[in-house]
Design brief:
By secondary structure, the protein is of the alpha/beta class. It is built from ten helices and nine strands. It has a five-stranded parallel sheet. A four-stranded mixed sheet has the order 1-2-4-3, sandwiched between helices.
């Protein structure tokens, strides 16, 4: 496992005091970096967002070890957690928080489902259809994990554009909007013509064959005629929430 900041500081003090040679200290650092996991507990202090555990493709033990180590330094989030791994992690970490619908698990914080009584938020996540909800929930849970006030508005895509009208006040009060859409990916352009806030567009893999697993909405969002729209990768609700955090942090 990686060395925590206190251990690293103590080691550097020993080198400065002459209690240990630089060669010996180097050997200690190398020994702590052996194994499959090369964690980064100092990322939070460098970037304002700590290292997050990407769960897809990892074994339960790899996820557990990463959460345990990073959790000693700061609250830690794991994304793309399967239902089976989620239940096992909850057993291993009884004080952890699991949100199965968003495939998220965390230690040291809470993952709250959407509260319809609190519509005025810094970040509003808006989806074109209910099929986009897994990605939108990942964005919502990540945003709230990052201490952002966030609200979800779902199923207001262009196939029933009148459904967007009741939510315009909420959207216009938001400081950042995350627009999640599959199929043809038109929602960010529509919203971009109605609000002042920057829009983070998230293409999803929802759609029939010509959607090309999200490539069609990705290209549509990149070609948006509405200025002020930025695009993250396909199904990347996590990345959209982190970008919102960084945008808002620059204005604090």
């Amino acid at each position: 496992m990686s060395m925590n900041p206190k251990e690293l500081h103590a080691l550097l003090q020993d080198v400065a005091a002459g209690n240990i040679s630089s060669e010996a200290a180097h050997a200690i650092l190398l020994s702590r970096e052996q194994g499959e996991l090369k964690l980064d507990p100092l990322r939070l202090s460098r970037t304002n967002v700590g290292e997050v555990v990407y769960g897809q493709g990892k074994t339960l033990e790899q996820i557990r070890a990463s959460l345990a180590e990073l959790g000693e330094h700061h609250p830690v989030l794991a994304t793309r957690i399967s239902p089976q791994h989620g239940q096992e992690l909850l057993r291993l970490f009884p004080h952890g928080c699991l949100w199965e619908e968003a495939s998220l698990f965390c230690l040291g914080a809470e993952l709250l489902a959407d509260d319809p009584k609190a519509p005025h938020s810094d970040v509003v996540i808006v989806t074109a259809g209910s099929s986009d909800l897994p990605v939108a929930r990942e964005a919502l849970g990540t945003a709230r994990f990052l201490s952002l006030s966030a609200h979800l508005v779902s199923d207001v895509g262009v196939a029933g554009l009148h459904r967007l009208q009741p939510h315009l006040e909420t959207l216009r009060q938001a400081r950042v909007i995350i627009a999640v859409a599959g199929m043809e990916g038109a929602l960010p352009s529509v919203v971009g013509g109605l609000v002042k806030a920057p829009i983070i567009a998230v293409p999803t893999s929802t759609g029939y064959g010509a959607n090309f697993a999200g490539l069609a909405p990705l290209l549509a969002m990149l070609n948006s005629c509405a200025p002020g729209v930025g695009v993250v990768n396909i199904d990347n609700g996590f990345g959209a929430a982190v970008l919102a955090k960084k945008i808002l942090a620059r204005n604090e």
